[in-house]
Amino acid sequence: MLDIMLCGASDIDQVRREFDEVVQAFGGQSWHYISGQISHDNSLTSSWVNNSRATVLNMDICVFVVVERVGDITWQTEFREALGAGKAIRIFCREDTYREYLTLRRLVSDPNAISPERRKLVDTISELEFDRYQTIVPYQPGFFRDVLRMQLAMLFSDALHATESRAQHSAVEALLSEPGRLSSAELSSVAEIATDEFASKTARKRAILALAARQAADDDLVRQLTQSPEQGVQRVSIENIARLYRTRPAEAEMFDHLVSVANESGDTGLARRLIPAMLGIDFPLAVGALASLELTDIGARRRLAQELENREQLIEHRRVRLDVVSLLRRCLDASQEADWKARCRAFADRLTDQPQ
After folding, report:
1. Helix (H/G/I), strand (E/B), else coil: 85
2. How far is 156 from 167, CA to CA, in rounded Å?
3. CA-CA distance, 7 to 88, in Å (whole number)?
């Protein structure tokens, strides 16, 4: 059974019948507090807030409607709970009320120009649009059922596309161990898996390796992968950057991007992986870009010195030689010690200097 909840102030009674008709036509069960159709617990600890929160969590879809007024529980509890739980949400506002909001929004700075109730309307809709980036669908009285029907149909269409996409991804995942068998269309699905922050880390890593094997990533995809908040995805992307990033000659902008990613990351292993990867793509360009790499990690300094020495035969031009020398001196610079060590040393000195 499809459970759909109508949320709003008491004036949603004006659209309740239309809501019930549409939900019933979709084969669903309508829920709203006006009819008493809510999850509830009658006990010493009962509260409307807890009842509303429990009802929202049991819903498949939450429909929020602003007729004329806004309710505190609707927007402070039900909406926040639905948003946090990832529920499907649709927001509607009667057309004349929305026009009133647009007018009142220009007067909101004057404390005497708007009543407290209308100020609550302005604040609520403004938060939805400008802080939460929510889309509010207007409706005219008497036509709510038509607008609701269309919006629910769009939700079902999105759900079908998502189901289709999951089926495609499942089929493609079976081929990730044999990237040579992947077609061009399947490689597009592989890219979607690699960049899907909700997919399993294992699947994403396998997708990245398949893209690297087929050299099927464009520059935008490379940037997206290297900026992933998932540490394992970032590491695999950096380790295989030479096969993922195929623009030749390499561009300084991409190298600067990679160095910036390493600098902003709290993962010290990222810089250690980036150094040999960049030097292997374009040695002179990498030497120049690595001048901006933060070298607070001793492991990164050791790796940089080692990788530069391993490529000594590539140091042909005087400019490159001077840049390499500059990098080597940074590797030897004691001032590059991690900040915590400096604070630790200063703390120990303060304690030592204190009188007994």
Report:
1. coil
2. 17
3. 13
- Model confidence at 294, pLDDT cuts 50, 70, 90, reads very high
For the question of whether the overall pTM of this predicted structure is more than 0.70, the answer is no
Q: Which of 161, 138, 160, 158 is nearest to 148 (CA)?
A: 138
Question: What is the Cα 263 distance to its own chain's centre?
Answer: 20
Length of the chain: 356
Q: What is the SS3 assignment for 19?
A: helix
Cβ contact 336:299 at 8 Å: no
Please give the average per-residue pLDDT across 318-326, as a whole number.
92
> What is the rounded CA–CA span in Å between residue 291 and residue 160?
50
Whether the bond into 355 is cis, omega within 30 of 0: no
What Cα–Cα distance (Å) separates residue 272 from each residue in 9, 307, 323? 57, 10, 19
Tokens of 14: 């004006």
pLDDT per position as a tens digit, 94-108: 999 999 999 999 887
pLDDT in tens, 67-90: 999 999 999 999 999 999 999 999
Please, what is the Cα angle at 6 between 21 and 165, to 5 degrees? Answer: 85
